[in-house]
Design a protein that fits this description.
Elements (H helix, E strand, L loop, with lengths): L1 H10 L3 H14 L9 H11 L3 H31 L9 H7 L2 H7 L13 H26 L5 H25 L9
Helix pairs in contact: 4-8, 5-7, 6-7, 7-8
């Protein structure tokens, strides 16, 4: 391993190829040409010194944190129903199932179009349907509380379940974002 590292440092193929790759990605996305984030450089220098199995373990830890977040959201969802012996709050599961459908059907593999302005009507329809599903995830428990079907405790657990799911989604987006070299976790 030291022979490979010494050879890379003599030829200059170590970190400069990674920085060049980052420069290419940033420049095609509208970033400043030739500039790389200092945070990215520090992260690359720290990660370059770690063995491959340690880096793989760190990524596994991020996945485990996502799994814990999603599991916590599911547990809160079920507890909101089971503790108060009222299963009406499970209606929000319909919205959780419908939420990713527009993204899967209309956005395709280009998820970057969802975070920018677009003239594409399919992308606009995707944004609208996803937003409507997200609002429905909050509105269903609020309507059930207003109608007197569920209590304040079930409403609090439902909304906290929603926010735990949103946090998991944001962490996933930050973890899989390859153009910006940062991670939420």
């Amino acid at each position: 391993m030291n022979g490979i590292r010494d050879e890379d440092s003599r030829t200059g193929a170590g970190n400069t190829s990674r920085v060049g790759h980052a420069t290419r990605n940033r420049s095609k996305n509208g970033g400043n040409r030739g500039e790389v984030s200092p945070l990215y450089e520090v992260r690359q220098s720290l990660m370059a010194d770690l063995p491959h199995y340690v880096v793989a373990c760190l990524h596994t830890g991020k996945l485990a944190a996502l799994a814990i977040l999603v599991s916590g959201g599911i547990v809160l969802q079920i507890l909101a129903c089971a503790l108060y012996n009222n299963w009406w709050p499970m209606l929000t599961v319909i919205m959780y199932v419908l939420l990713p459908m527009p993204l899967l059907f209309f956005a395709g593999s280009d998820g970057s179009a969802l975070f920018s302005e677009s003239d594409n009507s399919w992308v606009n329809a995707t944004k609208f349907l996803t937003g409507a599903s997200a609002v429905g995830s909050i509105a269903i428990p609020a309507i059930l509380k207003h109608a007197g079907v569920i209590g304040w405790g079930a409403l609090a657990m439902e909304l906290s379940s929603f926010f735990v799911f949103v946090l998991a989604i944001m962490c996933f987006i930050g973890m899989t974002d390859e153009d910006n070299y940062y991670s939420v976790i």
